[in-house]
Design goal:
With 403 residues, the protein is mainly beta. It is 6% helix and 46% strand. It is flat, with a radius of gyration of 25 Å.
C-alpha cells in the first residue's frame, strides 16, 4: 500500500488561498449579477382563457384598480398585465389579485405584448438594453436579449415583430427576441457604412409582417423623411430599403408628422398643416410613394394616440377619434368629444367621453348609447382595453377595471 504524499505547510496555505479566492470571486459575481436583483414568482397554472363578450353591458362599475405607469393595461394569456417601477405583474381580471410577478432592481423603459407573451425592457448603463420575455399566463421567463440601445425607447407590436425605437437607434425583434433589423446609430460597427444615413433623429415607426416604416429627420433636409424597409432582411445589420424620400408638401421646419399605422404594404401618415395646406392623412405604398391624401378638419393635440385591432385602427387626435379600415387604412369616420382611441367589444367601439363610455357602431361611428362612468378626470388620453366582459381604462398612471 502506497503511503500518502507528504504535504507541507506551504501546500496547505496555497490550497487555503485558492479556496478563499474562489469564494471571493463567486461572491463578487453574485453581487454584480442580474440574478441577485431579480425576483420571479410564477403562477402554478395559467388563468382560464378569456371568453369573448357577446354584448356590451348596460352599466359599468369599478371592481379594482392598480398603479401602472410603465404600460397601459395589457391582456395576455388570460391575465391583465400592469407595470410600475421595475415590477411587471400578471393579475386576475376580476379581482386584480396577483397571479405572477417579475421584479428587478432596474427601471422599466416600457412593456408591451405580442405572441401571447409579455416583453419587458429595462434600463442599464447601456440604455434600454435588457429585454425579457415572459409567458403571459404564468410569468415564466422565456427568451432574453441584451444589446446597445438609447436611454429611452418606445415599444410597438404588430403581431409579428416588436419594435424598440429611440431617438437615434431602432431594433426589430421576432418572437424569440432575435433581432431582425438594426437601424440608425451603431457604435463601433463591425462593418461600417452599412447604415444608409447617419445623424438622423428617429421620430416614429410602425411595422407589419411585410414592411417596417420609419419617420426620421436628417441633417440638411427641409422636412421629415419616410423610409420603408424589409422587416426581415438577409443581414440584420444591413437595412434593406424599398424606398426613402422626404415628405412632399410639408413646409420647411414644420414638425409633427406621425405614422398612424402600417397594414400589409400600406403606411398611413399624419401630415401637419403648412402655409398653403391643411392637416391631412397620407397613404403610402410599399416603396414609400404617395398614393392618396385625405384632408382633416380637426384640431390635432400634442399627444395623439393610436390603437389597433384586427377589425379597426383608431386614432385619437386629442379631441376626436378617427377610424381607419384595418386592411387598407382608409379613413372611415370621425367621432368628436373623445378622451381616447377606444377599444372593440362585442362588435362595437367603446370610446371614453366626459360622461362615461360612448358605444359606437363600428361601421359608421354612429352613437348607439352612453354608459355612465364616474371618473376623477375629464382629460385624456384614456386608453381602453377589453378583457372578456371587463373593461380596463388607463387613467394617468393608474388602471381601473370596470364591470
Amino acid at each position: 500500500m502506497l503511503a500518502p504524499e507528504r504535504r507541507s505547510r506551504a501546500d496547505l496555505v496555497v490550497a487555503a488561498g485558492i479556496a478563499v479566492a474562489v469564494v471571493v470571486a463567486l461572491t463578487v459575481v453574485w453581487f454584480r449579477s442580474d440574478a441577485r436583483g431579480t425576483t420571479s414568482v410564477t403562477a402554478a397554472e395559467p388563468p382560464p382563457a378569456l371568453v369573448t363578450a357577446l354584448t356590451v353591458p348596460e352599466t359599468l362599475s369599478p371592481i379594482w384598480d392598480s398603479v401602472s405607469s410603465a404600460t397601459a393595461p395589457l391582456v395576455v394569456g388570460g391575465a391583465v398585465v400592469t407595470a410600475e417601477g421595475g415590477d411587471v405583474v400578471g393579475r386576475d381580471r376580476m379581482s386584480g389579485a396577483e397571479l405572477w410577478r417579475y421584479e428587478r432592481d432596474l427601471d422599466l423603459c416600457g412593456v408591451t405584448a405580442s405572441w401571447e407573451k409579455v416583453v419587458a425592457v429595462y434600463r442599464d448603463d447601456r440604455g434600454c438594453s435588457q429585454v425579457t420575455e415572459l409567458d403571459g399566463g404564468t410569468g415564466e421567463r422565456l427568451a432574453q436579449r441584451n444589446s446597445d440601445a438609447d436611454p429611452a425607447v418606445t415599444l410597438t407590436a404588430d403581431g409579428t415583430y416588436v419594435a424598440s425605437r429611440g431617438d437615434r437607434r431602432l431594433e426589430l425583434w421576432r418572437s424569440d427576441l432575435v433581432r431582425t433589423v438594426e437601424y440608425g446609430r451603431v457604435d463601433a460597427p463591425v462593418n461600417p457604412k452599412k447604415q444608409p444615413r447617419s445623424g438622423c433623429t428617429l421620430i416614429d415607426a410602425g411595422s407589419s409582417s411585410s414592411r417596417l416604416s420609419v419617420l426620421e429627420r436628417c441633417p440638411g433636409e427641409v422636412a421629415d423623411r419616410l423610409t420603408v424597409m424589409n422587416p426581415s432582411p438577409k443581414d440584420n445589420q444591413e437595412p434593406e430599403e424599398y424606398g426613402s424620400s422626404v415628405l412632399a408638401g410639408v413646409d420647411a421646419g414644420v414638425e409633427g408628422a406621425r405614422i398612424l399605422g402600417v397594414s400589409g404594404e400600406t403606411t398611413a401618415v399624419y401630415l401637419p398643416a403648412g402655409r398653403t395646406t391643411g392637416p391631412r392623412i397620407g397613404l403610402f405604398d410599399g416603396t414609400g410613394n404617395a398614393v392618396s391624401e385625405y384632408a382633416l378638419a380637426l384640431k390635432i393635440g400634442p399627444d395623439p394616440v393610436t390603437s389597433a385591432s384586427s377589425s379597426v385602427v383608431t386614432w385619437w387626435t386629442g379631441s376626436d377619434v378617427v377610424s381607419f379600415g384595418a386592411s387598407d387604412l382608409v379613413p372611415r369616420w370621425t367621432f368628436p368629444g373623445a378622451l381616447g382611441p377606444g377599444a372593440v367589444m362585442a362588435g362595437n367601439l367603446l370610446v371614453p367621453v366626459e360622461s362615461g363610455i360612448a358605444v359606437l357602431d363600428l361601421s359608421n361611428g354612429a352613437l348607439l348609447r352612453t354608459i355612465p362612468v364616474a371618473r376623477d378626470t375629464t382629460t385624456g388620453p384614456i386608453t381602453t382595453t377589453v378583457a372578456g366582459d371587463v373593461v380596463l381604462e388607463q387613467r394617468g398612471d393608474g388602471v381601473v377595471a370596470l364591470r
